[in-house]
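Researcher: Please predict.
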Amino acid sequence: MNGSRKILLFCSLVLPLLVAPAAPAAADVKTREKSQVKFEGMLGTMANMFGGKAAREGVVFTNAVKGNRKAVLNDTTGRIVDLGEEKVYELDMKRKTFEVITFEELRRRMREAQQKAQENAKRQPDAQEPGQKEPGREVEIDFDVKETGQKRTIAGYDARQVIMTIAVREKGRTLEEGGGLVVTSDSWLGPQIPGMQEMAEFEMKYWKAIAPEASGISAEQMAAVYALYPMIRQAMDRLSRESTRLEGTPLATTLTFEGVKSKEQLSQQQNQGGGGLSGMLARRIAKRDDKPRATIFTSTNETLEIATTVPQADLEIPAGFKEKK
């Protein structure tokens, strides 16, 4: 899966999960959105290598839901999900081809990718980054929500700013002492918009079917994130629960994930090195990385347009496309 598709899928899938509907909706909906994901650290190195223009500038895509089908399309890639068939159709808009993937196959890929990422992480025990949880340690979660009073117009709707902060830390220790993970959700909420709730409900059904613990990111990337930062799962679970209590539809959201180093990690870095050239280089690297907090990744998503009618053709494989065997 290429970098632009990963970014497209992450932004179009993880963000709607943050506001789940109180009751099933029946309206169709189609949106045009712009999203971007920026990874830092080890994940950032991989994203920069393979992400291309989409990683640097973001991607504009359409998002349409009608009945049991959802389509996410941009100029180069696309995906049609059919809950009834339990199939996903991956589209290559340039080559005019598509690939059919069953939910069972996606579940298998998710398991294998996560296992591989965990094995890779174990082979690099000295490469621990802030926000990584040591095995066997219990965690606690702190939560805060704030209505800032700021307002703006997005996609023709009046929206208000709400900032939620989730901190996952070692049980019995402060965040500064034991380290942990901080997730900040900076959202602009508009009124309840017909169909937008159905989009969130669709995503929850889809991810519950293929990977209940996942949050909408591609299998390969989600596995790497969870392997390196297990606390993200707990943070996203809490964020999703708290988001259901907010009134309104998210029209623009920025999610920031930060790892916080423990006192022990900071001390180990400061004491790295030794004599000679290698020791001097180690001390310089440690000095550049001696900040207690580090951003893991940031995702942004903004709705540009909303329509409440969806032509059936928008949910079908385009004419002339051939199946890739």
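Model: The radius of gyration is 21 Å.
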